[in-house]
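Dear colleagues,

As part of the handover before I leave the project, I'm documenting each prediction I ran so the next person doesn't have to rerun anything. This entry is a single chain, and its sequence is reproduced below.
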Amino acid sequence: MLSKSPSESIPKACKNWSDIKATYRLLSSEKIEYQDLIEAIGKATAERAKEEELILIIQDTTEFDLTSKKGKIKGLGYIRRNGHYGMIMHSSLAVTRKGVPLGIVYQKYWERKERGIKHKRKERKYKEKESSKWEEVHKESIKHFKDKKTLTICDREADIYEYLVYCSEIREKGHFVLIRATHNRELEGGRRIKETLKKIDSQGRVIVEKRDGRGVRKVIEIEVKFIKTKIRPPVGKEGGEIEVTIIQGKGKGIEWILITTYPVGGIEDAIQCIEWYAQRWRIESYHYVLKSGCKIEEIQLEEVRKIKKLIAIYSIVAWKILWMIYESRENPEQPCTVILDDVEWKLLYVIAKKKKPPKKPMSLREAVRSIAKLGGFIGRKGDGEPGVKTLWRGLMEFETIKDGYNTLSEVYVYQGVK
């Protein structure tokens, strides 16, 4: 249904009238809100993570620009771009320590009803500000992992003293944070972060794979140094010193200064934190799939509350696409039956190889590459593995082929497929 054709309008994505009515009933229902869907999605993600000793939870914010539909959709708010309207979403995505996506844990949506209130930020309490989203989503996310260790990874926007205080309070329960620093904070002894790091020699090196939201890959050598210290509260802020580790990773085009409550016992742990932070682009890829693949900004619904529920549904689709990519890289030789049924993989084999399928299913990597080739992936020796965009296009093309095959199967059957 929707998961097969996420970029289509609801009538196009749903193949029959009963599917269309069922989808609209779900979106219109007063009994089911997006929070109910997100809660169920979070529980399913936690179930997939049950074998993991430590779960990485990556947070990030994105905006949906719905300006072109301003007169048609009720409840839109301001977004950052002047004169544009839409809604804002802050997500947490769980991944393994190696970066395989496990699923969405929690999502918060809101509409900004006022513009130009930054000058009032000192007058407002922390809990009244949008910046409290990091703590709120953190709290909601770790509810699913009470008996697990978690490390929440955030970008520079999360370098907030109040949030760091919260993170220091939950470390004893096995929940840690890794934040890229924005502020040159004062440390114990009166020195600032950058001044302190300058006096420390490089303690190790690591090769990291840095990618942007679209998966474009760069391999960079990074020099690493760290110091265990305490952060002092900013002037005017209540609270005590916060025990943290400051880690610097510096290489060509990169300078990461990270603040973490994770227990760092030596340079190996510091390097591990650098490698974990390098996984942050995973959530940018997730947002890219959701917006460019599922085309949320082009949906045709008339209420924000319905859009929120649809985004929750499409979140599963976006995660599945990401999972296919990373699982095919992590466990490439496992059979493709983890994503395709018997008819599907045989049909895909016939399309890709132009010959009768074997008895043994193709590998997951081979299946993912074959699907991506339907979406424009060439697959030359130097091309590497397919990315989000070509896989998404390939999946849509494969669904179209499957529909045609199912329609014509009684008239013309591929030998060996059915």
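Residues 6-24 have pLDDT under 50 and may be disordered. The CA atoms of residues 54 and 149 lie 5 Å apart.

All the best with the project,
I.
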